[in-house]
Specification:
It is built from 13 helices and 4 strands. The protein is mostly helical and 377 residues long. The longest helix has 29 residues.
């Protein structure tokens, strides 16, 4: 029988893995490293300090991995000033996300080797550079070389070790402590590669810039209504199928397929993708309609609460209609499922607008300069 301490430890770890990623947008490097380390030691904590069976935890572990990676990607919309670095990271993120979705559908572990998670370490590289240099100094050549080095010398060996060879580093070192010297040597090689790549950059700035620097749009400013984008176009159905909506559908649909493998909602993957796409379309057009009517969210929490109420209402309506046609869903799981999706949709909506207003050269600002200011938060 499970005792109270086991349950407390379990939920402390799970809640930590859920809430720590919230710090990534504001404190990118500490936040992602903390998430990465907790992911690495969570099962060791369970094995050492609890007697809980871990057979069913693997699925949740993978879902929480994708969850914090999604928040990490969304933070690049908000924070990254080097546009080529952002576009490269976006490719790496979606490449990995597609690979995980294929793996979940086929259970072919080779997919995780073919689609390695280079995004995570590329993010760490960029943020580590930003702490001491202006990231605008990273040229396309340096960014591409860093991606290749991470892909070949970090992620391919790691993905093979974990998913193909199915080796555990802790057990490997436990069998022979001298094995740790190999890891130290490998870390020294990677450090040397990083030095070679950055050796010609200007002198480092003093101190460490841990907090993210980003150009933040004043969402409650009267000037917000002067911006012509997909949220404020003059006609309601202008650009209904636009880049933002397409990316959001791809992002949330892939997340939904992955999450649905461990959070059953009594629907197949096609039904989930269709339902989520409709949910995203409704959310997007509702956000645009409110923006055109002058509604500006003062905080991301306010927007999240309002959109959660809307989405929960849609789920309850869907559940009611299904019951009339001999259908059903797992309501509790579905509500939690939609809560996660709403969080990602809200972050995407918020940070995508900041990205557009700071990187899109065709964005039209009517009668005013860009109403943004540099923040360190």
């Amino acid at each position: 029988m499970q005792n109270t301490s086991d349950i407390l430890i379990f939920w402390a770890v799970v809640m930590s893995r859920f809430f720590i990623p919230f710090f990534i947008p504001k404190y990118p490097l500490p936040g992602v490293i903390a998430s990465l380390l907790l992911d690495a030691v969570d099962q060791t904590i369970f094995q050492t300090f609890t007697g809980l069976p871990l057979e069913g935890y693997q699925g949740y572990d993978k879902a929480l991995d994708i969850y914090y990676l999604a928040i990490t990607y969304l933070s690049t919309l908000r924070n990254w000033s080097n546009d080529f670095a952002f576009r490269l990271s976006r490719f790496l993120f979606y490449y990995r996300l597609a690979g995980v979705a294929i793996f979940e559908l086929t259970e072919l572990r080779e997919m995780l080797l073919i689609f390695p998670n280079a995004f995570e370490y590329f993010f760490i590289f960029y943020e580590a550079v930003r702490m001491k240099w202006n990231p605008e100094l990273l040229t396309r050549e340096k960014l591409l070389i860093s991606t290749v080095l991470i892909w070949v010398f970090v992620k391919l060996p790691q993905e093979y070790w974990i998913h193909i060879a199915k080796m555990d580093t802790t057990d490997w070192i436990g069998e022979n402590p001298l094995n740790s010297l190999f890891l130290v040597g490998w870390a020294a090689v990677l450090t040397g590669m990083a030095w070679w790549l950055l050796r010609d950059l200007p002198s480092m700035k003093p101190g460490f810039s841990i907090t993210a620097h980003h150009a933040e749009f004043k969402f409650d400013s009267p000037l917000a209504s002067h911006i012509k984008d997909n949220y404020t176009s003059e006609r309601f159905f202008d650009d209904f199928i636009h880049h933002e909506l397409i990316e959001k559908i791809v992002l949330i649909s892939l997340l939904s397929i992955i999450f649905a493998q461990i959070l059953p909602v009594r629907a197949n993957n096609v039904q989930i993708a269709i339902g989520v796409s409709l949910l995203i379309a409704i959310n997007t057009e509702l956000s645009q309609w409110l923006a055109r009517r002058g509604t500006q969210w003062k905080s991301i929490i306010q927007e999240f609460i309002v959109m959660s109420i809307v989405n929960f209402s849609l789920v309850l309506l869907f559940d009611f209609l299904l019951a009339r046609y001999q259908g059903s869903i797992n309501l509790l799981n579905t509500l939690f499922f939609v809560l996660l999706l709403t969080l990602n949709i809200t972050l995407y909506d918020r940070y995508r607008r900041v990205y557009i207003w700071n990187h899109d050269p065709v964005t039209d600002f009517i009668g005013s300069e860009k109403p943004v200011e540099l923040k360190t938060e």
